[in-house]
Amino acid sequence: MSCTVAAVLAGKQALHGGASPLALAATGFSLVLWLVFVVVANRRIHALVSARPVSMRWGTALGAAGCTVGLAVFAVAVVR
Amino acid sequence: MIGFVESLRLWFAPARVREEGETPDYRFSLANERTFLAWIRTALALVGGGFAVDQFLPDLSWGWRIALALALLVVGVLCALRAVNHWMRCELAMRRGEDLPVSRFPALLALAVGLVALAMVVVVLFGWAEG
């Protein structure tokens, strides 16, 4: 949910100046980051279903953190 | 306790963590994962705060707005990277049966967030806004 809020704010920020091609591409970028985050979270939730779940993989941790960093980098790029 | 260099090396060879020591009780690994997720939530909240400062405080002067937004965003990035690093270090310490790593980061983060909040209070009180 935190990621959704951040991604919605990112999309709002990108579309602030109107729906130019660049703004739409920026919105698409934030949408992709959000989707990656959701997919990573969903895969981990499924992995936790077993009675003795294995510890989180490196890629999962890096994926979640990478999307967060990506949103922040995106924010720095579009900050006015 | 692992040092900075070893910690950095593990970022590029994460498989080495599984070669060390013994697999800890999965409840401990899950507790470590929950801590990681709490830090990621904090990082996302800080990034969201950066966006919010930029979007919802249009009356703030440009310099203050950018400075506050960038401060929150930078702290958010540090928080996310540190979440991964701390999770990995804790996992390694548990496998080796060592004490968990201690860190100054929570205190520094609290100071940084406190400073940003104080700056916002000062800006609002003294009305350093445009127009």
From TrEMBL, chain B:
It is a multi-pass membrane protein. InterPro entries: DUF202, IM_YidH-like. The keyword Chaperone does not apply. The chain crosses the membrane at residues 36-56, 62-84, 105-129. Pfam families: DUF202. Its main location: membrane. Residues 27-90 form the DUF202 domain. Keywords: Cell membrane, Membrane, Transmembrane, Transmembrane helix. The keyword Transmembrane helix applies. It is found in: Cell membrane. PANTHER family: DUF202 DOMAIN-CONTAINING PROTEIN, FGR18P. This is DUF202 domain-containing protein.
